[in-house]
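User: L-2-hydroxyglutarate dehydrogenase, mitochondrial. Structure?
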Amino acid sequence: MLLKQALKKLNKIQSSSWPKIYGKRRRCIATTTTTTTTPSAVPKERVDCVVIGAGVVGLAVARELSLRGRDVLVLESSPSFGNSTSSRNSEVIHAGIYYPPNSLKATLCVRGRELLYKYCFDHNIPHRQLGKLIVATRSSEIPKLNHLMDCGIQNGVAGLKMMDGSDAMRLEPELQCIRALLSPVSGILDSHSLMLSLVGEAEDNGATFSYNTTVMGGHIKENRMCLEVFETKCLENWDLGFPSQPDMVLVPNLVVNSAGLSAPVLARRFGGLHNSFIPPSYYARGCYFTLSSTGVPPFKHLIYPIPEEGGLGVHVTLDLDGQLKFGPDVEWINGVDDISSFLDRFDYSVCTSRAELFYPEIRKYYANLKDGSLQPGYTGIRPKLSGPGQSPVDFIIQGKDIHGIAGLVNLFGIESPGLTSSMAIAEYIAARFL
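Assistant: Predicted structure:
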């Protein structure tokens, strides 16, 4: 079993007595890995910190905890890290403009941007500070653009500048708008290189990763959250229900539920956690289309329209190779059962017919977009806490002070700007919950 192999590896760096000082980089940690057997013959292991989910936020948390001298075990249901939301987004480093002042999204995005640029520079992660133009294409959108600037200023975003349409179009000759907000600190990065670096640094500091390992529930015993863990392959045929007995039970000192799309579903299966603390979850698919032409990209900056319900609008981003892409749109999806959520059985195919919805949206600010120039790219799914017609909801980072369970931290609704905020979220968790 992969989990047993991971625990065996973890055991090599943990204490044989309790507690022990682990050299200069280890603090005094009250952890041992001891195997016991429950009455139902399910192996039980005591561990220090468990991070559920190896997306970019889970990886950042694992790195941060390991840097602070904690023994960390990362459990991921997929064969590798970052296979879901973390690898299916715009790869944009956001400035912190869109979010209400003093919200977690605002504070963690601004702090996360600073940490992320520094990390990318220090670790040679490919990135580029391109700058962004948020554009109004009709007069009715100007008040919304002014509101975004006010939010950005209150959130501490530096360098924001409101531009007349003529000035913006001199900066970007292919652009069509009547006013624009310039954010010079926005940028792009290679998210895979970032995640690979976070994994490597976490492992260098003793963190252990167990892939193809799914946490499907838990229960409280002796005031600790006991995690019920399965090999992912054993769940493939459980379409009509859940297996009755886990492969192993883990008893950690600290659990960080960073399961992304399935975080609320998992929390509902934590016995002893009251449902009133678990927000409703919604899923929003978003497609990306790339520009087929291989010539010089028509834009040098990121181009964003005024935000729409459920997202930031069909915007223009560039990757580090100069490939232009448009998206994502918003398509609400329903009827996702728990097993599909745990096993990431979402439909990630790009519906080519949705391109017809993209053309009129893009031509609002890029009138020269040619028919037939959009090619299917990829699809992502946002883990949202607000549905159609509802106001956006802030990140939820929930610990004992809220739900009353020692050692349990739930992360709910970590959508955009989750990538930008990832290192700040990790810093926040370590500061508050260790």
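The longest helix spans residues 104-122. Confidence is low (pLDDT under 50) at residues 13-39.
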